[in-house]
Specification:
Layout: E1 9-12, H1 16-27, E2 32-35, H2 39-48, E3 53-56, H3 59-64, E4 71-74, H4 80-90, E5 98-101, H5 107-120, E6 123-130, H6 132-138, E7 141-146, H7 148-161, E8 164-165, E9 168-169, H8 179-208, H9 213-224, H10 231-239, H11 264-274, H12 280-292, H13 295-304, H14 317-350, H15 356-362, H16 373-383, H17 394-417, H18 422-434, H19 441-452
Parallel strand pairs: 1-2, 1-4, 2-3, 4-5, 5-6
Antiparallel strand pairs: 6-7, 8-9
Helix pairs in contact: 1-6, 1-7, 8-11, 8-12, 8-14, 9-10, 11-12, 12-18, 14-17, 14-18, 15-16
């Protein structure tokens, strides 16, 4: 194939995401090649745009169809498959070519692959991609990290296919080594928290306030039209209006209450624990997905521990829903704040060279956690790039203070009525400890020293100390 007829971009993995990204790239003026082991997917790809997209089932032919330096992106399941595909590519690529892992790979694996490929003379980019099927086709948010020189080569393509917010593309170089996949992992952790929060409002609206499906649709519509505007509330609004053809009830009411997960939320919690940084709203959201899978056990427990008939939840639903909106705002801010604090801490330990303001900026469009609040987040970091925690920003602080009565009312009421809202509860608990100058952790240190001689520090004194707590203290 002549060089001028070769493709500018290659994609391995022609599922929904891979195919839609290729169509997006083609729409922006590039010729592409795609590879998959499935002949059916290759045939389907070749039918999409025969003049600009070329599909292959042979890896060597696929690579030979690309311009040099060759740009190959993988959208395959995270884990060993990524390593397997990389080995296949190394057999047919030339040194200096660029490999992009666009899947949800664990950042630890990305660090290992970056070092391995660098030693072999290949450029490697670990890139988080958010936005789902629609984002891939119309403009995702992308978080590339790793080889900066390689990013400069692929930047023109990525900039064109990204979503646009106020004329700015939702893609930027994140930082060194595994920075891109670490940022995407935290993005997904925040996503877990926001979804859990919304599900808990659903529980209160349905079983506490006894709202009908159309009434809940109106609540989510109203919230999404205001300062809570977000992609996740937008789709929640639409879910509460969706009925299958011929059905007189919502599809939602036929769906089993067992939530699945792919691991990125768990990785976020693990990474935070390794860094000794609390993100309890993400932790509990991961745990509640896990608990949802124990349907049989939960059913038995519901029979053994039935909920007592409680007094009426509210005498004024409209007023109470306004209070719930304040509670949701408070907890939503906590979710973003905990995620951004984790990025701040990881940047210190892992030397990624992250720009938190830039991260907030590219999350404003194209991605699953895009929301109106990210404008405030971006503004906070633009004003103070060294901001450690969003709670300390003046504008966010003032909004949080106004929302405190709402979150306190919400959390106390769910406890009183026996309705589970653990993500809201931990968002308040986190806040109350965050604003506490003297936590009761001194007692924990005394206990640790008592039973394990783990020592402690004293106020106003240097060094560490140990006490024989069982000796006569007279």
């Amino acid at each position: 194939m002549k060089e001028e007829n070769k493709s500018a971009f290659g994609m391995i993995g022609l599922g929904t995401m891979g195919s839609n990204l290729l169509l997006n790239i083609v729409d922006n003026g590039y010729t592409c090649s795609g590879y998959d082991i499935s002949p059916d997917k290759v045939v389907a790809l070749n039918l999409l745009n025969p003049d600009a997209i070329h599909g292959f089932t042979d890896m060597k032919e696929f690579v030979m169809s690309l311009n040099s330096p060759k740009i190959v992106m993988m959208l395959v399941p995270a884990g060993p498959i990524v390593d397997s595909v990389i080995e296949e590519l190394l057999a047919v690529l030339d040194k200096g070519d660029i490999i992009i892992d666009g899947g949800n790979s664990h950042f630890v694996d990305t660090d290992r692959r970056f070092k391995y490929l660098e030693e072999k003379g290949f450029h490697f980019i670990g890139m988080g991609v958010s936005g789902g099927e629609e984002g891939a086709r119309k403009g995702p948010s992308m978080m590339p990290g790793g080889d900066k020189d390689a990013y400069k080569v692929v930047k023109p393509i990525l900039t064109k296919i990204a979503a646009q917010v106020n004329g700015d593309p939702t893609v930027a170089y994140m930082g060194e080594r595994s920075a891109g996949h670490f940022v995407k992992m935290v993005h997904n952790g925040i996503e877990y928290a926001l979804m859990q929060l919304i599900s808990e409002t659903y529980e209160v609206l349905k079983h506490g306030l006894k709202l009908s499906d159309p009434e809940m649709h109106e609540v989510y519509k109203k919230w999404n039209d205001g300062r809570l505007q977000s992609y996740l509330l937008e789709i929640t609004r639409d879910i509460f209006a969706f009925k299958n053809d011929g059905e007189d009830h919502l599809l939602l009411n036929d769906i089993k209450d067992e939530a699945k997960a792919k691991g990125t939320g768990k990785w976020t919690s693990q990474a935070a624990m390794d860094l000794n940084l609390p993100i309890p709203i993400i932790d509990i959201s991961v745990s509640m997905r896990d608990l949802s899978k124990y349907k049989e056990l939960r059913t038995k427990a519901s029979e053994v521990f039935p909920n007592a008939k409680a007094e009426k939840y509210s005498d004024d639903n409209e007023k109470y829903i306004a209070s719930m909106e304040e509670a949701f705002y408070f907890a939503m801010v906590s979710a973003y704040a905990q995620g951004m604090h984790l990025l701040f801490r990881a940047n210190e330990d892992y030397k990624y060279n992250l720009d938190l303001g830039m991260i907030a900026k590219i999350w404003r469009g194209g991605c699953i956690i895009r929301s109106e609040f990210l404008e405030d987040t971006y503004a906070a970091y633009k004003k103070n790039p060294e901001l450690q925690h969003l709670f300390l920003d003046d504008k966010i602080h003032k909004s949080l203070v106004k929302s405190i009565p709402g979150i306190r009312t919400f959390v106390s009421d769910v406890a009183k009525h026996g309705i589970a809202a653990p993500a809201f509860s931990v968002s308040l608990g986190y806040f109350d400890n965050f604003r506490t100058e003297n936590m009761p952790a001194n007692l924990i240190q005394a206990q640790r020293d008592f039973f394990g001689a783990h020592t402690y520090e004293l106020k106003g004194k240097n060094g560490v100390f140990h006490t024989d707590w069982e000796a006569d203290n007279i």
